[in-house]
Each structure stands twice: as structure tokens, then as C-alpha cells.
Amino acid sequence: MPRVFVQGRPVDAYPRRAPEAGRGSVRRITEVGEEVLHRPCRDVTEFGPDLAALIDDMFLTMYVADGAGLAANQVGVDLRLFVYDCPDDEGVRHVGHLVNPVLEAPDAGGRRLLDEGEGCLSVPGAAMDVPRPDRAVVRGLDKDGGPLVIEGTGYFARCLAHETDHLDGHVYLDRLSRRDRKEALRQVADRREAVFARRAARTAELDEA
Questions:
Q1: d(C-alpha 13, C-alpha 126), whole Å
Q2: Residue 110 has what pLDDT?
Q3: Which H or E run includes 141?
Q4: pTM assigned to the model
Q5: For 119, which of 25, 68, 127, 172 could close a Cys bridge (C-beta 3.0–4.6 Å)?
Q6: pLDDT at position 24 over 80
Q7: Residue 179: how many CB atoms within 10 A of its CB?
Q8: 100 contacts 141 by C-beta, under 8 angstroms
Q9: Which one is catalytic: 90, 163, 183, 193?
Q10: Three-state secondary-structure class, residue 4
């Protein structure tokens, strides 16, 4: 099996970072509690250089924050768009972006829930077990308006569901019990400063390069 899929298509080789990141600028990542994270995002209706530039910025911001995916509202933009660079459970790497994504409802008969660890760049420093289906299918568009269907299993399926949740106005804390949500917020309080120090150091390294 190919080891890398870009926009759902296999490729023979791919750089360590998506080329989009080389054209991007680092943006501030929004945090849980900010309004833009807690309301549904608007559909993208204009395709062109502004959208492409946003995707470039999102890729670079995701890498600086050491993330596997990033939704537009996580950089304060109220649009249905996310980027990803995420492995599945077989170690296959998946890289790309999705505009106006819609997550298909899983087949109840074949669905298996995995209760595994999940974090979020907008909930800095916290990680909690969250039940998600072991397979995800997301339909949407690319930056030029062409149709896309992206399928994922395991950890990549979790990423696709997590990012689509963001665009629907939900963070993973919304899927936790009250007790687990309180624990996640305690982790944020304990670890947030260290997380932001690492991000600042990576940003400084880019500025010096």
C-alpha cells in the first residue's frame, strides 16, 4: 500500500511538510471559550487566492503547533474549511484540505466505537479519551471547488470527525462527561504555559531560518 495519500490520492513521495506551509504565515490559534469556536461556520462561497492563502497559513500554523489537523475557526476564520497531516493506525500518512466538509453518518451495523485519547490545539495541554467511530467518510471540495471524498480509519478517522466537529461549532470537550471536562480544563491550567512556550520557540526558529 502507498505510504502517503494527498487529497485522498496515493503519491510516490512527499516532503516532510506540505508545500503550502512554505508560503504561509503563522496565525494565532483560538482557545476554548472564544465565540468563534462555539457556533457553526459559514460555507465557503468564494474560491480563489484568498482561500488558497488561508490554507497556506493554516498548514504552517498547524505544523508550528505540532497538530494533526486544524479548522479555520481555530485561526479565527468563520468558514467551513480544515487542513490535515495525519497518520492512520497503519502508519499511512494523509495530507490535504477539505472545503465545506460533510461527515457521512456511519453505518450503524458496521460501526465500531474506539474510546481513545484525543487532544485539540484549542484546548492546549489536555488529552482525554473520546469515543469515535473507527471509520469516517467526509465529502467536500478542494480549494478550486472540485469534489473530494476522503475516507479514513483509526486515528485518521478520529481526525476527520474532530475537525468536522469544529466547523459545526463543537469542541471535543462537548463530548465529555462533566467530570472529564473538568479534568481536561485542569490539565489546560497546568500545561498551557508550556504548550505556548513550545509554539513560540518553533515560530522563532522559522523566523531565523
A1: 33
A2: 65
A3: strand 135-141
A4: 0.95
A5: 127
A6: yes
A7: 8
A8: yes
A9: 163
A10: strand
Q: Report residue 150 as a C-alpha cell.
A: 476522503
Q: How far apart (Å, rounded) are the C-alpha atoms in residues 35 and 187?
A: 21
Query: What is the C-alpha to C-alpha distance for residues 51 and 60, in angstroms, rounded to an integer?
Result: 15
DSSP 42: B
Spatial distance between the Cα atoms of 209 and 61, rounded to a whole number of angstroms: 16
Within 13 Å of residue 129, how many CA atoms lie on the same side as its CB? 5
**Which grid cell is 3?**
505510504
Beta pairing class for 81-87 and 69-71? antiparallel
Grid cell 478520529 is found at 158
Q: Is 181 helix (H, G, I), strand (E, B) or coil?
A: helix
DSSP, residue by residue, 69-129: EEEGGGGT--BSEEEEEEE-TTS-EEEEEEEEEEEPPP-TTT--EEEEEEE-TTSTT-EEE
193 is catalytic: no
CA dist 72 and 57 (Å) reads 10
Cα–Cα distance for residue pair 18/4, rounded to 1 Å:
12
